[in-house]
Amino acid sequence: MNPERAYSLDAVRFVASIVMMCGHYGVGSFVSPVLNDLFLSGAMTVTFFSMSGFLIASSDSFYSGSALLLAKKRTLRLLLPHWVGLVLVLIPALIGVDRISFAELGKILLYWVPGLQNLAAIGVFTYKWNFPAWFLTPLLLGGLMLPCLKWLQIRSWPTPVAAAVCVALMSLRVVLDFFYAIPGATENQFFANFPRFLEIFAGAVLGAALMGKENRLIEFLRRDIPLLSAVCVAGTLLLTIRLEFGSEAMHNFTRILFLPFALWIVTAGYFNRGWCYRIASHSIIVFFARISILIWLLHVPIRNLIVRLGAMAGLSQGPLLVAASVGVLFVTAAILEPMLAAVYRAFTRSPRSFVLPNLENRAPSAR
Question: Residue 49: helix, strand or coil by DSSP?
Answer without folding.
Answer: helix
